[in-house]
Amino acid sequence: MDLEIDIEGWPGADWEALAERASHAVAESAPELANARLSASLLFTTDAEVHTLNREWRERDKPTNVLSFPMLSREELLALEPEGPPVLLGDLALAYETCAREADEKGVALEHHAAHLIIHGMLHLASYDHEISTEDAEHMEGLEIEALARIGIADPYADSFGDREL
């Protein structure tokens, strides 16, 4: 997958390299995302920008950690042939202040939390949805855990004893 990455207001780490690693890892866990024709845009931005996007496109008047804007249906993604012109999978936007606060609250590195949110957002672009049912949530979490493990990041859903959070 080809990523177009824009970084505004995210200090510190090599966010572009992190996004590329997360994108490759999720494509290994969810093979429908491995189609070379796919492209996606990823915006690392501020809470203020994500708040505006969330209000305008989702009618939710608050910032959130990650927004996903899919451009393909699940059926279109699964039917996409390997040969042909590029196809836009969708857009993601990550909010720095919310992501940093959540990482701090969870006691994890911001880079690890951002990688998790990129993977989570990519799965949403592929029409995975954790809000449909418990089964769908567990399947999506399993893909996230698998993809994160591929890049050396621990299960974000486990507590410090390795047990699943309730």
TrEMBL record:
Signal peptide range in chain numbering: none
Gene3D superfamilies per record: Metalloproteases ('zincins'), catalytic domain
Reported function: Single strand-specific metallo-endoribonuclease involved in late-stage 70S ribosome quality control and in maturation of the 3' terminus of the 16S rRNA.
GO CC term, one of those recorded: cytoplasm
Protein name (database record): Endoribonuclease YbeY
Family stated for the protein in its record: Belongs to the endoribonuclease YbeY family.
Amino acids binding Zn(2+): 120, 124, 130
Any one Gene Ontology BP term: rRNA processing
Organism whose genome encodes this protein: Pontixanthobacter aquaemixtae
Localization of this protein: Cytoplasm
EC code(s) of this entry: 3.1.-.-
Keywords attached to this entry: Cytoplasm, Endonuclease, Hydrolase, Metal-binding, Nuclease, Ribosome biogenesis, rRNA processing, Zinc
Main location: cytoplasm
Gene Ontology MF annotations: metalloendopeptidase activity; RNA endonuclease activity; zinc ion binding
Details of cofactor binding: Binds 1 zinc ion.
Cofactor: Zn(2+)
